[in-house]
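Minutes, project huddle
Topic: does the predicted pose make sense with zinc ion bound?
PN asked that the exact inputs be recorded in the minutes so nobody has to dig through chat later. Recorded below.
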Amino acid sequence: MSDVLISPSILAADFARLGEEVRAVDAAGADMIHVDVMDGHFVPNISIGPIVIEKLRPYTAKPFDVHLMISPVDAYLEAFAMAGADIITAHPEAGPHFHRTLQVIRKLGKKTGAALNPSTPADVLDPVLEELDLILVMSVNPGFGGQKFIDSQLRKIEAIRQKLDRANLKTILEVDGGIVPANAQAVIDAGATALVAGSAIFGKGADRYAAEIAALRGR
Ligand code: DX5
Ligand code: ZN
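Predicted holo structure (tokens), as shared on screen:
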């Protein structure tokens, strides 16, 4: 049993009924709402942009945990902030000026996040560790829901946990991709404090959302 934060990824929700889906996972016990933004360039898929986030904003008071899989990113940060994002997470792999990206997010009054692809080492975070409110470890290659968890990412989660503890930082350590009840505890044991789950929550119908969220918490 744990008090890990659960951030359902609406990428796996019914896009024709997104508002109701957000309301349903909120009522089912979600701590945040994970919004996957894909541009067909940084990742080989296209999802949604700020207009959709703005329309979803009235459906929940929970934080919008916005995962930007786009390149370039800086030109769009203000639009996501205005649309109602609370945490804005970008990929350092998406451009050469990641520190500037974080500065802009902070200036917009939002929480900052860094997302790392599976092949990116944890050490790229060292120069910006203190500028981060959230670190997102991708446990699948970004672009699609419903993929299998990549086990080697557990070691990266442990390495980042050590960095944060050594620096006495309370940064959220979130893991995204292929999370199911069967591997959630291993991810938490490695040091994660937040889990993203798309297909594991939305896959079985709205009357199961609360049970699936509880199962990820080990309840
Ligand atoms: C993948 C996204 C994930 C994805 C997770 O690019 O960042 O958030 O929706 O979906 P599942 O939980 O189905 O792996
Ligand atoms: Zn995501």
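Observations noted during the meeting:
- The beta strands are 5-8, 33-38, 64-69, 87-90, 111-116, 134-138, 172-176, 194-197.
- Residues 153-166 form the longest helix (14 residues).
No decisions taken; revisit at the next huddle.
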